[in-house]
Amino acid sequence: MRPERVRIFAVHERTNSIGRHLPTSGGLGKMLQNAEDLGCETVQVFISNPQGWAEPVLRPDAGEFVAGVRERGIFPTVAHAKYLINLASPKAELRERSVRALAAELSAAGEMGLDLVVVHSGSHGGDGERRGMDRLVEGLERARELAEASGRAAEPLVENSVGAGTQLCSTFDALGEVTRRAGVRACVDTAHAFVAGYDLAIPGGPRLVAAELQAALGDAVGLVHLNDAKNELGSHRDGHRKVGEGMIPAASWAELFAALPGVPVVMETPYEDPDADAEEVRLVKELAGGLRKAAAGR
């Protein structure tokens, strides 16, 4: 049963661009029309099979995509890299394959006119967080160098994990260290942060979490994956719910937005019908401060 709609009274102007991950199976033009219909101001897509190693191929409708993004004022545009990539792996062959796969995604995204590519922080495979972080930093640096040498490249963002098993960067401190050492920015997933132990559900919790995030990363937060959590605080189990339908109360998001002005937001929540998805985008805009976004430079 869908929860009762929460009424939000904004006390500040909205500065965050709001959007969601969208499928591209019908073509990039159809995806952009879907984004417009849903009210998206930013979008995230896959540009290759996230479960396979095949390199992304420049799509014939890439020109239509660039023109459509410009016409609609969508920014930033985001790609999510393959789930198979593990830059921190202790296995040299997998690590090398991951570096080249990420470089290919950065290059292809740049050629398509996409701005950002989100990549998971990966796993140290059992030989310790320190060694894993060293490999992750090296892998990010190498992938970016390879992509930039081949031409235009999108910007990589490394994402926090839920902290299951040997996963890296479930803490903001670890994520901040990686971003500083590798010279990249971060994507912060709210569901991942919650199940990793950052309590966004209690009154005042989002402000405290945002303060920890600011202390650890400063201005290196390039994107928020705004996902409600399916599982409990500290459970280290991934799972997304629509905003307001999981473990985090809707009112918490308003507190978080107030503490993270200007950071673009992409939802990776479950798809429903177009009306329900558009309503979720609308709700998040209200939670972020209002349906209309403040003009640039204000």
UniProtKB/TrEMBL annotation:
InterPro entries: AP_endonuc_2, AP_endonuc_F2_Zn_BS, Xyl_isomerase-like_sf, Xyl_isomerase-like_TIM-brl. GO terms for molecular function: deoxyribonuclease IV (phage-T4-induced) activity; DNA binding; DNA-(apurinic or apyrimidinic site) endonuclease activity; phosphoric diester hydrolase activity; zinc ion binding. Its EC number is 3.1.21.2. CDD domains: AP2Ec. GO terms for biological process: base-excision repair. It holds the Pfam family AP_endonuc_2. Its cofactor is Zn(2+). Residues 32-282 form the Xylose isomerase-like TIM barrel domain. SUPFAM superfamilies: Xylose isomerase-like. It is an enzyme of class 3 (hydrolase). Keywords: DNA damage, DNA repair, Endonuclease, Hydrolase, Metal-binding, Nuclease, Zinc. It comes from the Bacteria. NCBIfam families: nfo. This is Endonuclease IV. It comes from uncultured Rubrobacteraceae bacterium. The lineage of its organism: Bacteria, Bacillati, Actinomycetota, Rubrobacteria, Rubrobacterales.
